[in-house]
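Lab notebook page, bench 4
Experiment: in silico fold of construct C2
Operator: M.H.
Input chain length: 167 residues
Purpose: comparison with the prior construct
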Amino acid sequence: MTAAVTSADRDSLAPAPGRPTPPTGPTFGEVEQLTHAVRELFMQAKARHRQAAQQTDQGRLTVLFTLEKAGPMRPSTLAKEIHLDLSTVSRHLRQLEDEGMIAKTTDAGDKRALQVELTAAGSTLVRQYMKERVEQVQAALGRWTAQDVTLLTDLLHRFVGDIEGSF
């Protein structure tokens, strides 16, 4: 038995005027192009990271940036946060303390434990480094509109959230 499809049936399947067509997912080829673009971005970042490591100790900068973002914490928590072993983090902390970039304080919750936090000098260094980085990216995006930058920012946040835990 075959059912005849009337024009009324076809009309009920079509999107109503003014109603957007439901989105379809990206094609394999579109995702493949995105993957290549993201890989190229990471390769550029890795090259810049290697270059920066020749000029400064990148591990110490990572410690400073993490403390600036997250605030005071125990060295063991810091080591977990930046995915380094505690002995490496301890070495960085000793050097940063000697340079006046961090200070050790007693943990208010456990008087036997220590926390590390940025000093004013450490915070100034991080802010200056970030200012220079933002100025470099701003120069690279000189031909972009503000709307393009905002859209890219929103989409990257969405992308990171959507792929988090996928791998």
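Observations: The chain has a mean pLDDT of 86. The CA atoms of residues 11 and 18 lie 14 Å apart.
Next step: discuss at group meeting.
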